[in-house]
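To whoever is covering the structure queue this week,

Two jobs came back overnight. Logging them here so there's a record in the thread.

Job A:
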Amino acid sequence: MAHLRVSDLRKRYGDIEVVAGVDLELRAGECFGLLGPNGAGKTTTLRLCLGLIEPDGGDIEVLGLPVPAKAREARCRIGVVPQSDNLDPDFTVEENLLVYGRYFGLAEAAVRARIPALLEFAGLGARSNSRIQTLSGGMKRRLTLARALVNDPDLIFLDEPTTGLDPQARHLIWERLRSLLNQGKTIFLTTHFMDEAERLAHRVAILDRGRIIALGAPRELVARHIEPQVVEVFGDGAERWAAEFGQKLAQRCEKAGETVFCYAHDTAALVQDLEPREELRYVHRHANLEDVFLKLTGRELRD
């Protein structure tokens, strides 16, 4: 069963078509990652799926319900973690969960019964009476995730859930998200972190200028779009080395800032040539989803 179906979805603001014919389908129990540069249309797509804005064209079905026609009913079975934490600073940790439960028409007793498990899930069991201002960024993010589960949703939308968090907090959030997948929840994830998508998502779509330009499992996309090995070369003379030697030894070389990325099926000759060059430093690694993303969307800065 598909928990989300989107067909030929379109949204225009003035002369710009922000979402330009998107087709998506989320299978029950999977984590689906939506990736894209700034301004690609990720958040607009998410808001359309939630029924928060009206589409200019296309069809949306969430948990078997048409959106936006029955968006309210659909949202009763959905959890949402927005980009920015919007916890109420006037309430304690426990009160934030209790008040949020009322938005779904849940009885106070039912919400109170769920609160201990939600706080334990968030690693905040000892902070139920704490004010929001006393929580760290990671604690606030975990509380926002726990709040999204107060109605026991079937489908959870996460809009860049770990932006601004330190590595320890990110790993803890990832662990919690994997536990939700193990419980059979379905997750729709937008993120700028390619390692996050590789760790969590069963399938990903890369969105650019309102259109999906690649769709599949992370490993499938790497195998389909990129050479398997990468050598990153940096230091004084890296660009000159690439022009004289790198381009002859690799299938493809790309420059970004002070680094030259050399892509090849066999990097033995590249590494052998670089090893004695003390003025250059290099990193030899396997290709990943970030390489695919940059190849398909470009390396120029998007604002």
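Job B:
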Amino acid sequence: MREEKTSRMATLLAGLRQASDAMPLSSEAIVALIEQHLACKNSSRLPVLIVAAAYQVAGVKIGERLLSLKGHNAADEQTGALGDVEICLEGDDHVVTAYEMKLKRVTIDDLDRALQKIAAANERIHNYIFITSDVIEDTVKSYATEAYDRTGGTELVILDCIGFLRHFLHFFRRFRLAYLDAYQELVLAEPDSAVSQPLKEAFLALRQAAEADV
């Protein structure tokens, strides 16, 4: 089984290399590709990788760096993490931006727990960002906006996962292919317990099909 898995991955990766001389995918084509990947089963880890890949590609440009990702099943209480993705300024070690991923609607209770983390942090958090794949309710959005005054300057915001990706790819359009490669690298590097082998193969097959259509 291990040899079959290795062979399938090698075949899929070889197919991508053969298609490397095709016209580059557009930003919208990359959005569609990753949106298809998100629609696959057992994709709960992918939003973390979507955001992490963005900082891997653009972090140096904006003077920020991505901290090492925690394990998929590691609770924040155990690791001491502020969020699923944590960002520091270059040359500094304290977290200024934290991302928390939700595959369901963000609630006021979620925001209150985030406010508790912000209050308990040793240094001031600049941004605490929820990334969701569900509807963002107006009442919850308004409650998040009020946090700026309550925390003395910390932004608490809820963003749509695909909306975040689309804005990033258009804003950093010249880095869109580097982003796609970074996302692929993160997906393939995850343990199978976080991103299953079928989910890894699905991404490679989807990318190969997308690039073949260009």
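Note for Job B: The chain has one domain: 44-213.

Please reply-all if you pick these up so we don't duplicate work.
Q.
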